[in-house]
Amino acid sequence: DEIQFANTDGNTNYYDMNSNSGSKKFKVPSSKNQILAIIRRDDVESFKALIKSSFNYNINKLFSRSENEFRTYANQEITMIEYAAFYGSYKIFKFLQEQKGIQITDKLPMFAVAGGNFDIVKSCANECFFDDCPALAAKFHRWEIFEWLIDVQQESYAKQHIFRTCLQFSNYRTLFKFIKRKGGKSEKMLTKAAEFDNLILYKYLLKLGDKEVKRLLITIKRPHGGFLPIHYAVLNQNLRFVKFLLDISTDDVNNYTTRDKFELKVDPRLLAPIHFACKGGDLLILRLLLRSGKI
Questions:
Q1: Which of 153, 158, 204, 233 maximizes the CB count within 10 A of its CB?
Q2: What is the Rg, in whole angstroms, of the alpha carbon atoms belonging to the chain?
């Protein structure tokens, strides 16, 4: 973002960078990119000078998407205070927050949680709601913020798919704390562990609770047409997972589901684990299912 050497080629400004492979030309960053670069560095003095040098500068200006923004979550329509919150630029954030006329949007706490600066998150607490933020904290591995949202802010995570989010983004620290809070007694947890092909987690969940809980978890009840762990294990072509499930119980080996993961549902065909094994062309899993003696 720093400009040292610049020249003009037509109507476009460039700066030269010498490298082993020869001289390369790059576009000079626009004033927008320079502002965002100052925010990322949390250079509050340069930021103040820039604001003062521009007559009637709009502190609520909305920046559009940019090809120069490498952080996907920040590459959307975003205000300067939201951008500062995401990059943890506390000094610029506080400066903007104290400005008369600053607009606080519903997205600000989400950028603050994703950014992970606890001071900025707490600064938002008096004027923002943290709806949907627990799942975002899990996604970005903000462990302390996640606990603060649940314990202090009393934010609900009942409908935010925290377990799935933790698995999807490999946040096992929050995952195990979430399991502890829920007591490890959710049937959906086992199904999700199988869906994400996580045999170690599946075994861990089975060790929780008393014998009655284990029995209920092994014989999972599901809505009509839903997937069971055995379906996901076969779909993921995980031979060890399939063998482990069959060693526990063969009761589900003939259970059907109407949902087809490989193609759009075009008819009400019923599909069992053996059908998925045939479609996937996995001969070893097919043999394992046939040897169960329950097909």
A1: 233
A2: 26
- For 80-186, where are the alpha helices, taking DSSP H only? 80-86, 90-97, 108-115, 118-124, 133-139, 143-151, 162-168, 172-182
Which of 253, 230, 227, 250 is closest to 241 using CA atoms? 230
Contact present, 13 and 27 (Cβ < 8 Å): yes
Sequence-distant (6+) residues with CB within 8 A of 167 are 175, 192, 193, 196, 198, 201
- Neighbour count for residue 241 (Cβ, 10 Å): 23
pLDDT attached to residue 2 = 37
* Cβ neighbours, 10 Å, residue 67: 6
Q: What are 205's two structure tokens? A: 């969940």
Parallel, antiparallel, or unpaired: how do β-strands 12-19 and 7-9 relate?
antiparallel
The pLDDT assigned to 191 comes to: 83
Express each pLDDT in 44-70 by its tens digit.
Answer: 999 998 888 876 778 898 888 877 787
Q: Which residue has the tokens 């040098």?
A: 53
d(CA 213, CA 205): 10
Distance CA 284, CA 233 (A): 13
Helix (H) or strand (E) holding 240: helix 239-248
User: What is the secondary structure of 16-78 as a DSSP string?
Assistant: EEEETTEEEEEEPPPHHHHHHHHHHHT-HHHHHHHHHHSTT--TTPEE---TT---GGGSSSE
Residue ranges of the chain whose pLDDT lies below 50? 1-19, 24-29, 210, 213, 217, 219, 223-224, 262, 264, 267-268
